[in-house]
From TrEMBL:
Keywords: Carbohydrate metabolism, Cytoplasm, Hydrolase, Magnesium, Metal-binding. The keyword Metal-binding applies. Its cofactor is Mg(2+). Its main location: cytoplasm. Substrate binds at D116, G117, S118, S119, N208, K274. This is Fructose-1,6-bisphosphatase class 1. One of its GO terms (biological process) is fructose 6-phosphate metabolic process.
Length: 337
């Protein structure tokens, strides 16, 4: 089998797109290298002293895990000197990270959730890293929050890694979605699946059922119908999965279809939802749409949302197109009352 490494894949993609500037390729390679280092740290577990709490809170008011902090540092250090970035933003940092003056600046903005699925770290369940790439209109100028306030449709690349039994990198440059597996002997990511595609229909859904009593009516109705199975209006049985690591739940959907929901509920309504738009919902929505799926808030297409804050939260409904459309239709019907 021809083994295509990430580097070769990116060089060929750049050639096909006739892109002169190799900064985007360099950026993706540096992010991948940082994820390799994170994968090594996670693999050590308690032997590496990386499990447990860091003893600090992030801007979301959540207790940070040691691996949240370590992954954040690894991504910052790897990316700040390469000359391909105008700035970075992370779930674990309140403010954007400007490129230190001693380093050259580039034209891209990198946003990331350095460690996704933090509640699963100490119990050895798959976690991941999620990233999104934008172009900076004011490259070379002082960095501000508003430089990042671009709709998801403006993303030039997005990806996630899953640190599971094997370490996978899933990537889109706006021309399909491709999966790379980390070859630990070779030390590089190797292309193992091209053009991932999400089936339009599915019998599998993922939601945190323990929040059921807090959900809005449209979600109550949708999930009730799923649970009634073939005896109910859907006329078929549905199965449920919930890993509680968005990367793992979304990767399952990219592999065999499904629906992922973290809808608005009365617990999170004040903050607008649970998951973050800029470095969770937008990159995942870009990837899912590139694989033939759909992604909404239940009411609007996620990629069309105009961001207002670096850490703003939104409801998320994504995956197999026909189920996303049904959930969204129930919301719109519900609002017509
Ligand atoms: O704990 P819950 O309610 O099941 O929420 C799980 C969700 O929260 C997250 O862990 C939030 O992400 P972080 O771990 O990066 O904060 C998602 O990965 C996951 O989908
Ligand atoms: Mg996350
Ligand atoms: Mg996180």
């Amino acid at each position: 089998m021809r083994r295509i490494t990430l580097t070769r894949f990116l060089i060929e993609a750049q050639r096909q797109q006739g892109a002169q500037n190799s900064d985007l390729r360099l950026l993706i390679e540096v992010v991948a290298r940082a994820c390799k280092a994170i994968s090594v740290a996670i693999g050590k577990g308690s032997l590496g002293g990386v499990l447990g709490d860091a003893g600090s809170d992030n801007v979301q008011g959540e207790a940070q895990k040691k691996l949240d902090v370590l992954s954040n540092e690894i991504l910052l250090e790897a990316n700040e000197w390469g000359g391909h970035l105008a700035g970075m933003a992370s779930e674990e940092m309140e403010l954007p990270h400007a490129i230190p003056t001693e380093y050259p600046k580039g034209e891209y903005l990198l946003l990331f959730d350095p460690l996704d699925g933090s509640s699963n770290i100490d119990v050895n369940i798959s976690v991941g890293t999620i990233f999104s790439v934008l172009k900076c209109a004011n490259a070379g100028c002082d960095l501000h929050d508003h430089d990042f306030m671009q709709k998801g449709t403006q993303q030039v690349a997005a990806g996630y890694t899953v640190y599971g039994p094997s370490t996978l990198l899933v990537l889109t440059l706006g021309n399909g979605v491709h999966c790379f597996t980390l070859d630990r002997e070779l030390g590089s990511f190797v292309l193992t699946k091209e053009n991932l595609s999400i089936p339009e229909d599915t019998r599998e859904f993922a939601i945190n059922m323990s929040n059921q009593r807090f959900w809005e009516k449209p979600v109550q109705r949708y999930v009730d119908e799923l649970l009634q199975g073939k005896e109910g209006p859907r006329g078929k049985d549905f199965n449920m999965r919930w890993v509680a690591s968005m990367v793992a739940d979304v990767h399952r959907i990219l592999t065999r279809g499904g629906l992922f929901m973290y809808p608005l509920d009365s617990k999170t309504v004040a903050q607008g939802g649970k998951l973050r738009l800029m470095y969770e919902a937008n990159p995942m929505a870009f990837i899912v749409e590139q694989a033939g799926g759909a992604a909404t808030t239940g009411r609007e297409r996620i990629l069309d949302l105009q961001p207002t804050g670096l850490h703003q939260r939104v409801p998320v409904v994504l995956g197999s197109k026909n189920e996303v459309e049904r959930v969204t239709r129930y919301h719109l019907e519900g609002s017509q009352g």
